[in-house]
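Memo to structure team: turn this sequence into structure tokens by end of day. - J.P.
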Amino acid sequence: MALNLMENAVRHTPAGTRVHATVGRRDGDVVLTVEDDGPGVPDELRERIFERFVRGEGDRGSSSGLGLSIVRAVAESHGGRVDLEDAHPGARFVVHLPPTASGPVTERVPAEPTPA
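Reply from structure team:
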């Protein structure tokens, strides 16, 4: 999911465009943000950008138009969502995922067998 977002940013921006990814927490969710300072998402694509086979202008012919639909499907399969937020200049995609139900990962050490 993160790789798809970053590849999408690189693919649809001019060479030398800054692409920045962060992970943090917001309102109890784990949040992944991938943003760039490129030309942004054209207004006519904003409503359809997460649909399958939608390709933006400037796509250099190397994509199938599935990347962002896969991002959305993965986020939703984990109980989350992905949003396209306004960024001037550029584009900002924000994935919100709920924290895991099992809590933080801790190391588990097997108990020593009790002598008989």
